[in-house]
Amino acid sequence: MTLWLHGPWIGSCRSLLDLVNFFGELHAKHVDLYLHQQGLDTGTPAGKAMFRMMGVFAEFEREMIVEGVKAGLKRARAEGKTLGRPRVSAAVDAKVIALRGRGEGMRKIARTLGIGNCTVQRIVNT
Q1: pLDDT tens by residue, 111-125
Q2: Superfamily of domain 2-78
Q3: pLDDT of 24-38, one tens digit each?
Q4: How far apart, in Å, are the Cα atoms of 102 and each of 43, 55, 69, 99, 106?
Q5: How far apart are CA 14 and CA 51, in angstroms?
Q6: What distance in Å separates the CA atoms of residue 83 and residue 60, rounded to the nearest whole number?
Q7: What is the predicted pLDDT for the residue at 95?
Q8: What is the pairing mode between strands 2-5 and 32-35?
Q9: Domain extents for the chain?
């Protein structure tokens, strides 16, 4: 039996190990893959090899992206830049605490002050 897949689905595997396990499960059930867009058939030895190479390169690409992001964050911290969303002012903090003290709900406080629900939760919980 051959399973036909359309589209760039190979990136959905989180790691090379996931891809190999997925391929192993299919192989155990006597199922081959035919990737239409790539013209790849895992029923042939060349197709199996190419499938595994695609997995290796996909994992390599992912690792390179992760490494680049980490390096960029490290550089930004070294330069003293603040990361993340900007904090709200002390006045907004005080308003949130006052409204919550009066028994207002967190969502209502967020709507009233024009800030996010998570911001209200962070202020209330600190």
Answers
A1: 999 999 999 999 999
A2: Resolvase, N-terminal catalytic domain (3.40.50.1390)
A3: 888 888 888 787 777
A4: 68, 57, 43, 5, 11
A5: 15
A6: 27
A7: 95
A8: parallel
A9: 2-78, 90-125
